[in-house]
Amino acid sequence: MDVARTEVTPRGRGNAARLGLMALPVAFFAVFFAYPVAAIVARGLKADGVWRLGRVMDVLAEPDMRHVLWFTTWQALVSTALTLLIALPGAYVFARYDFPGRHVLRAVVTVPFVLPTVVVGTAFLALVGRGGLLDDLWGVRLDTTVWAILLAHVFFNYAVVVRTVGGLWAQLDPRQEEAARVLGASRLTAWRTVTLPALAPAVAAAALMVFLFTFTSFGVVQILGGPTFSTLEVEIYRQTSEIFDLSTAAVLTIVQFAAVGAILGVHAWTVRRRESALKLVDPSRTARRPRGAAQWALLGAVLATVALLLVLPLAVLVQRSLDAPGFAYYKALTRSDDSTFLVPPVDAIVNSLQYAVAATLIAVLIGSLAAAALARRDAGRLVRGFDALLMLPLGVSAVTVGFGFLIALDEPPLDLRGSWILVPLAQALVGAPFVVRTMLPVLRAVDERLREAAAVLGASPWRVWREVDLPIVRRALLIAAGFAFAVSLGEFGATVFIARPDNPTLPVAVARLLARPGDLNYGQAMALSTILMVVCAVALGVLERLRTDRTGEF
Amino acid sequence: MVTLSACGSSGSASGNGSGDSKTVTLVSHDSWAASKSVIAAFEKESGYTVKVLKDGDAGQAVNKAILTKDNPQGDVFFGVDNTLLSRALDNGLFQPYEAKGLDQVGTPYQLDAGKHRVTPIDYGDICVNYDKKYFADHKLTPPASFDDLVKPEYKNLLVTENASTSSPGLGFLLGTAAKYGDGGWPDYWKKLKANGVKVVDGWEQAYNQEFSGSAGGKKAKGDRPLVVSYASSPPAEVVYADPRPKTAPTGVATGTCFRQIEFAGLLSNAHNTKGGKAFLDFLISRRFQEDMPLNMFVYPVVGGAKVPAEFTAYGPAAKDPETMTPTKIAANRDQWVKSWTSLVLK
């Protein structure tokens, strides 16, 4: 009888509902992430049924591996600092200044973040490499130096800071700072005592995200670093894919896993602190035209930085795609010769869109269920810990996941190796964390009393969600979907391991074209990259129109 | 669709489609290519439907095949070369089958002759390519041999790939090891380093970014007129140009070549062994062999198979390339790459 009674108490019902919401996301991540990764790590560390944990110490004792670990850490630290330094003024300008083209530009600076490095790395090289702009102007060449890596990291992660910090900055009530000034505080003191504390958690969150992405950097380091620089992620790829030393790869995977877990733990903590009640206002009321020489100068400096660092590499890509008379490279995309080497490259666009739609549906389903469970006030410590776990796929090597799929998902009922669904599933792993991050703050902001009132009046949990939550979060949902879509379009790492030859995605087709000699192949790769870029930019541009006052981190 | 033979104990394969005895599944690397008409003709004559699974670059594809060998993704694997052959054979990737027409394949290519676990399909040479225009403009004779590359007149001209991450990079290292011997190659590389060789991570960077003679390199303002690539790269520069130039913009230093032979084999736990065998026969049929060069930019191994005019005109195969047995490569590769890394990269 006791059991029956507990079930009808609100708390018991909360538990049941929470578990119901969590079941699918937990199952999804367990089956398509944890299990494959565990399988490939186990394959590397187990020989003849015996665990060889001694390998961990052996590998860590190798000077080469310690060097990799050291380089991975310090380049991530420096990259993060540099990104904050360059992007924070941008975050401020985008949040507080109203100028023509602001929304378009906000979409443009986000494009690098969702583009595959294989596409942009080549173009970025044209900026800092030989004959690049820096070379032409001042004879400075940065390719194969660590500076190329660091600048590229700024290029790719600028949007993380602008969106995370800028999003909050736009919603801080400027009157609080003004009030402090009226009370006699200097401009600096007012900023330091009022604005900075309010922003600090967002800055910390952005810094941790950038650190996470640069700590696990792969394409940038491979393309721009030359053979002398190697991160953990690159080394895992090398050990798995080239040298076939699975035990070393397994050890490095565990090391990376531990580091990423720690980063995410700290991240979850700052996220929670940030959601402490700040008085937020509609961002459209905080932005205004710059006034005075200093403000115009700041705006000018930020726009110049964006033009040089973000727009220029993208423009190089476009310019190279047009570097043949009469759009020849674009025309060649539709041509299908007799060879089975490639389907007409233009087909890759259709494939990519189809995969991305499927991936978006999966990511939105999984991500919003998880966000709904996490947003509940009664969410326990365990559930809140899951918040951080959902981000793990962003920090785990794609080659590990890809090879894990190969050996883990090969038997019924999970015989998916030959199935098309594997690509959207892998992309959804990367998309879902963004959905969670976008939805969660919005869901948490929904007044719990509304839900309770509806429940008291007899509405089923589903009805409560439909009548109370959905109208409030609909826009956030669309934005989450759009971001998941753009991320899926650009996803390369995991896709390249599982995309089937008869239907490559855009990034995979670009990589294949780049892997062949000849003018037409190179030109087509540039043309396809440009198309991918435009599609991503359009998707992000639509999102800008949808943005509301409270829309999470991205 | 499900046939009786597929219903037995090998039910686990049904999801891959290869359990269907009417389908033969080929697992290969990303460079696999064949004319649709040629594949269609095979399908019509044999009654099998061909499914192709491209599984990453050559090294990756071999590694994946080894990982999944108990429950393979297909029936035939194509694309293991002599540098990786031992890894595949030692791991029991293939089961023996003597393909019909093997007697037409020259003996130098038959590296598993007695056992027939693999069938040679094609070969290509990894050679230094040169930018014709650069050497004409500078009134300099292009280098012809390994020895030439360390001469002062070619200082700071060569770019090559990382031997630990790139197969042409590894091939070039093996070429120097074959030429100067187990003890001699490090000295040669010291000289090459002193002569300003540049090392980048992969073929794409070397060829499309650094090399001044390729279409991509010209746009990227590449300033290295010498690059480690393939003997078949010059014809590719012609075939993939629109309009086609009269001569190839690049040439091959014929004394710097290392021969790469590619093999195919019937996977050990293939679900459709009969279809797999038929497909192997097809791979060394004249029809496939003559179709291959312009699709994959490699040379046929079957005697008498016609080589397209573009090849003879722009990229003749090296007469006397360096070679090395797969066993020797397997025994030394890791150690050599390690020494090479500390010698050249650090």
Give structural notes:
The complex is a heterodimer of chains A (554) and B (346). Chain A has 554 residues and is mainly α. Helix content of chain A is 76%, strand content 1%. In chain A, strands 1-2 form a two-stranded antiparallel sheet. Residues 1-9 of chain A have low confidence and may be disordered. In chain B, strands 1, 2, 3, 4, 5, 6, 7, 8, 9 and 10 form a 10-stranded mixed sheet that branches. In chain B, helix 7 (167-194) crosses helix 14. The longest helix of chain B is centred in the middle third of the chain and has 28 residues, at 167-194. Chains A and B meet through helix 6, helix 12, helix 20 and helix 26 of A and helix 2, strand 2, helix 3, helix 8 and helix 9 of B.
Summarize the model shown.
Chain A: Belongs to the binding-protein-dependent transport system permease family. With 554 residues, chain A is mainly α.
What tags apply to this protein structure?
heterodimer; A: 554 residues; 1% strand; globular; B: 346 residues; alpha/beta; ten-stranded mixed sheet; 14 helices; 10 strands; transmembrane helix (chain A); MetI-like_sf (chain A); transmembrane (chain A)
Give the N-terminus to C-terminus distance of chain B in angstroms.
58 Å
Portion in helices of chain A: over 70%
Low-confidence stretches of chain A: 1-9
- Percent in strands of chain B: 15-25%
User: What characteristic shape of chain B results from the CA principal axes?
Assistant: globular
> Which radius of gyration of chain A do the C-alpha atoms yield?
24 Å
* SSE topology string of chain A: HHEEHHHHHHHHHHHHHHHHHHHHHHHH
Main beta sheet strand tally, sense and closure of chain A: 2 strands, antiparallel
Continuous helix count of chain B: 14
Topology (elements, then pairings):
The complex is a heterodimer of chains A (554) and B (346).
Chain A: H1 2-8, H2 10-45, E1 46-47, E2 50-51, H3 54-61, H4 63-96, H5 102-114, H6 117-128, H7 133-138, H8 146-169, H9 174-182, H10 187-215, H11 219-224, H12 232-243, H13 246-274, H14 283-286, H15 292-321, H16 328-332, H17 345-375, H18 381-389, H19 392-395, H20 398-408, H21 422-445, H22 448-456, H23 461-490, H24 495-498, H25 506-514, H26 519-546
Antiparallel strand pairs in A: 1-2
Helix pairs in contact in A: 2-13, 2-17, 2-20, 3-13, 4-8, 4-10, 4-15, 5-8, 5-26, 6-15, 8-10, 9-10, 10-13, 12-13, 13-18, 15-26, 17-18, 17-21, 17-23, 21-23, 22-23, 23-26, 25-26
Chain B: H1 4-7, E1 23-28, H2 36-46, E2 49-54, H3 58-67, E3 76-81, H4 85-90, E4 94-95, E5 119-131, H5 132-137, H6 146-149, E6 158-161, H7 167-194, E7 198-200, H8 203-210, H9 215-219, E8 226-230, H10 233-239, E9 250-267, H11 273-283, H12 286-296, E10 299-300, H13 309-314, H14 326-345
Parallel strand pairs in B: 1-2, 1-3, 6-7, 6-8
Antiparallel strand pairs in B: 3-9, 4-9, 5-8, 5-9, 5-10
Helix pairs in contact in B: 7-14
Family (chain A): Belongs to the binding-protein-dependent transport system permease family.
Domain ABC transmembrane type-1 (chain A): 69-265, 349-543
Membrane topology (chain A): Multi-pass membrane protein
